Amino acid sequence: MISFSKYMINAILNSYGMLFFSKNKIFALLILVVSFFTPFTGACGLAAVIIAILAALALGFSKAQMENGLLTYSVVLFGLGFGTNFEFGTAFTALLIVGALLTFFIATALNVILNKRGLPALSLAFIISTALLIVASKSFGGVGLTHRHIYWYNEMYALGGNRLVNVITTIENWNIPDFIAGFFRSMSAILFQVNIATGIILSIGLLIYSRIAFILMIFGYTVAIFFGVLMGSFNQVDVSYYNMGTNFMLVAVALGGFYLIPSIRSFFWIFISVPIAYLMVIGVGSLLFKVGVPIFSLPFCITVILFLYMLQMRTKPSKLVLTPIQYYSPETNLYRYINGKERLMNNIYHQLSLPFMGEWMVSQGYDGSMTHKGDWGKALDFVILDDEMKTFRFPGNLPEHFYCYNKPVLAPADGIVEDIIDHIDDNEIGGNNAQQNWGNSIVIKHTEGLYTKLSHLKKQSFKVVKGAYVKKGEIVALVGNSGRSPEPHLHFQVQATPNVGSKTLAYPISYFTINNHKEIVLQNNSVPSEGSFVSNVVGNAALQQAFNFQPGYILKVQAPNFADETWEVCTSIYNETYLYCAAQQAFAYFINNGTAFYFTNYFGSKKTLLYHFYNAAYKVLLSSEKQINVKDHFPLNVFSVNPIKWLQDLLAPFYIFIRMRFESEVKQTDGLLNDGSISFTSKQTLALFGISKHQSTAVVQISNGQIQSFSIINHQQTISALCSQ
Fold first, then answer.
1. What does pTM read for this prediction?
2. What's the whole-number average pLDDT of the chain?
């Protein structure tokens, strides 16, 4: 019973929150409460959504389908609109039930149809069902229109007597500019009200929920007024408060920061999208008025869907970015996108490693001055140098004198051997075989449209055959000096087609290190530049085992002043893995690609041990071979809201001035076979306008392939947690 009640509350609140593109429960509750400023209208909205939810469960819809509010927020609008415009009675009650179910049915169908095309159904179901009911009601003698929305003071009196009416009257009579009063009235009109008090409360709630959404509301409202004045036609009769709120202000939020990542470009396009909605309000509204049907939020729906569909037709990427994962908060969408763009590129690119062991130098990079030209310019040549920066030992007149000659060549990723050339002799040093340009080569297919080619290999050194399946890091051949190669070197390129002479494709290498002779720098999803000394990241077996969190794995954690926590590794329906603490309802999503372990998301209380572990082990390079300083950034939405953070939220679409940096380093303390004790140290640093301030330091202890403990020291507290399976 408790579980069902919690589900109903969540489903109802999400239905109301979605009126403002929010799933924030507190803001949704505020919307619900404010809707009862006109009690009868508020009751109709609540009754309608409850009817729809109960009917959906009776029909076999799952709780998950109904709880997110996407299928029922049109039902809330229907209930509010119906209660605002029609007189109560027996026929009214019957039509409320039938209309609520009709709206739900239409919403379900439209969501299925449009979502398949990556488009939202928005409030189309409300518009269709309400229009049908208005037309049909003309034939029903038992239901009639009401002027309740005009005489809403009467309901306020019934609700709170003279005291409440006096408060509302005082607010309504405040001496504030018409522009500001109009904004608040337009905000309230989204709930079918036209009063300043409701608008103020909703504005405060929206500001607390999302600073970006709030300024977008103001921006959309301002653009609409500006466009109307520019056209010489703005007046409150043609463009009502309802149209200002529902059709112009919500268009600005939807396209400025919800369905698009907030940016200066998304704000710019509001100058186009709001006037488009304005034209529809005037043009389409005039046509619908002739048949006695209000236009409602149709311009909003058409403008948003049209704009999103248009953006999906683009053939080239743009800085006007469709929201890839919807977190129902413009700030979270933006911060997650920025963070993901920087650190989650492994989800976009197929992971390729360097095709050799040890440290080599890039002797010729992309668009090199010697042979990497034109369509074949996106390639890399590698050699081995000694301490004197020579590629050979004295006298250097034979291929065997060169350090890279006869060295193993590795498969850069799993794949199938597409082609092999293995009949070309090595050149003499200084010689060249321009007729057989590539020399002995191997082409490996990794996925459709992605191949790698390794060339200038040694004749009869191949360890695999055509059609064989190879694993990443498997030896496939040895370096030679065949083809257009005056001295031994390894040629590596990525291509989209399987032919030996295929054009090159610019494509990044996943985790590798660069030795700049001052420090070892970790690189990920980048292309090494000419002259750099590069090597693969060599994994540590104990570290890899410690962070090999497989579904079903359970870790128990305890620390003084914290409740004991049990973390279980789970998998979502999208095949995302995460640590889940049931007692605290906390989730920490992560990725482990064998080279690095890193968290991608955290949801839940920030007073849990899981949250502190998320901060401590935000990114772990699963290697202890070299002293590598790993650098990363936290998404800003994870951290607590404060005045500076609010200012950042307001400016975030245009300028980021806060960064929370993460640095980590792994140290092998003993164990020659990489199975001894390992300490993983990390620190957080707040960078504000370029000024850095240390926030915390964490140490994770690993022994025998298991996480034994972690500790965190910050300004507020010291946490020492013990871990056990």
1. 0.81
2. 89
